[in-house]
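User: Could you check the structure of this?
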Amino acid sequence: MNIKTIIATGLLAVSATAFAQNGQQEMKFQEERLTLTQEWDKTFPLSDKVSHSKVTFHNRYGITLAADLYIPKNAEGKLPAIAVSGPFGAVKEQSSGLYAQTLAERGFLTIAFDPSFAGESGGQPRSVASPDINTEDFSAAVDYLSTREDVDAERIGILGICGFGGFAINAAALDTRIKATVASTMYDISRNSANGYFDANDNADARYEMRRQMNAQRTEDYRNGTYKRTVMNPKPADDALQFLKDYYDYYKTQRGYHPRSINSGLGWSITSSLSFINMPILSYADEMRSAVLLVHGEKAHSRYFSEDAFKKLKGENKELLIISGRKILIN
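Assistant: Sure, the predicted C-alpha cells are below.
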C-alpha cells in the first residue's frame, strides 16, 4: 500500500468516525429575531390575486433570512414553488418581489428573499456579499420551501435576477432538489469583479492592484473599527454609458428607490469584492442535470454573461432566450 492510499484511507476513516459521532448528537438551531416591517413598503402595488405575509428561515451558516411569501388566493393542495432573489444589491421590495408576486398570480407559491447581510435579513457586517454564502441563500430557501405542507417538494424552482442569476445557476449545480432554474439578465459577479465590464481589465496586474487597494482598506477598516462603503449609482454625466443611466433611473428615482437597498444608496462595503476575484462561481455549471432558462435582452450590455454561461450548459433541457429589442430586464 503506497503512501497516498494510506493517507486517503486514513482520512476516510476519520471522516466516517466523525460523522458517526456527530450523527448521535442533536444540534438545535435558534433563528435570529429580526425586526420586519409589517406595512406594505414595496415599489409596486399589492395584487388582489395573492395573499402576502412575511416569513423567515436560516441558512447553514446560521444567518436568518427575511422573505415575502406570496400565495395564490383560493389555492388548494400542494403547489409548485419558486424562490426569487436579486438583483445584486437590491432588496425584495424591488424587482424580486414583483417577479415573485407575478408568478404567484399564475399559480406558484413564491418567496422573494433578502440575501445575507442585506435588507431585512441578518448577518454582520452589513452590505457585504459572498459567492459561497449568497449561493447558499438559495439552497436555504429550498430548505424552507421543501418543509412547507402546501409545497410540492418535487416541483421547486429558483429565479435569480442580475448577479443572483449567477448564484442561482451555481446553486442549481450544487443542489439536486432544485428542479428548474431561471436567470434573468444574468451577471457573473465573480467574472465581473475580477475582469471588469466586458473583461476590459482581464490581466494579472489589474487584479493585483485591486487586491492591493482592498487589502489596504481592510487594514484601515480594522484599525478604525468601521468599514467604508462604495457610492452606488450617482447621477451620471450626460455622456455616461447608457446602462449607468438605466441604473440611476431605477434605483435612485421614485420608480424603484428603496431605503434598505444597497443600490439605492447604502452602498457596498469597499472590500466586498475580494472573495469574488479569486472564486469563480460557474465552474461546474456543465454538470447540472435540471432545467435551466437564461433570459436576456437583445440590447442589454450584460448579454455576454448569459451567452457565455449557456455555452457551459449541457443537455436538452437548457435554453437561452434573447428578448428582441430589449435593453434591460431587471426592472
